[in-house]
Amino acid sequence: MARIGRRIAFDYGDVRIGVAICDPDGILATPIATLQSKNPSLKSEIAKLLSEYEPVKAYVGNPKLLSGVDGEAVAKVLAFTEFLTANFDLPITLVDERLSTVTASRQLRESGVDSKGAKTLIDAAAAVAILEQGLANEDK
Question: What pTM did the predictor assign?
């Protein structure tokens, strides 16, 4: 059985980082923020979110290619994961995110949101998909 407590997920990108959180029981994942990857205060913004939500675990999307091999983006995600590990005392698990952005875009489009003008919404929704996948993996 999964540990009780909130979990947080990050969808890392060169420009933006989508962030999602779940309730303490791990049932409902909700988008909470879209951070700017190059923001000099990124560490303090993440610290603020961690302080506010007090997650017991973090998931970071692992952007493998559809074939399952590591693409160029994986190295950037691993560097971001190392940044989190070096700065925050939080267990981190990588989650296969191959279709998270595609899924998020489709769900937003189906709900009537124009995906071209909603990049920050897509990033946060992709973080929700990553979190949901991480939570599903906990139940296995």
Answer: 0.85
